[in-house]
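Run log, item B.
One chain of 179 residues. Sequence copied directly from the ordering sheet:
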Amino acid sequence: MLNKDSNGEYIYAGKYPREAYEQAVVDGITSQWSGDYKGKNIITQFTVLKEPSSIQKAIYITIDGKNGKSTGSRLKKKEIKMHICNGMNVYNLTELGLIAAQEFGHTAFDLDDLYNKSDEGIPKTILSVMNDAKRMPRQEVDFAMMATNKMFKGTSIYNGEVNGVKVTPLDVARYYVGL
């Protein structure tokens, strides 16, 4: 149920308890960015901190009960701002988890949205957690794009270069759709 606050903005008025939304975000990120890739078991762990921390690679996540678009920042301070509704659509817990996984892909791995890349040769129908238009669980292409991230450089997962030529996540996505 949505109501308006004194500023005329929609606010969420209780479909699930706040803790359920927090758990959906954690579950969405850990389940979608963990699994097997190239014979390696990738595990994304999540630690909830109630206060700011000295952890160097922290990603700060807030969940806002107001209407709005969820966003993931690629700036130096890594932040994800989740909204539990967009327009008149209040997300269920599965949807919120997939949206959190997509925003994590932006923030942690510097991945682009794929639904708006048709001018760069990526069809809007690509199955990917990074394709908001399809709202899909993680596919192999997502791990392949993730592996171009410099955080994996020097590991057997990294594929940021092929025969000495630097590849981007979009190059990887094009490969997966046969382009």
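Observations after the first pass:
- The chain has a mean pLDDT of 80.
- The helical segments are 18-32, 93-109, 140-146, 169-176.
Flagged for discussion on Thursday.
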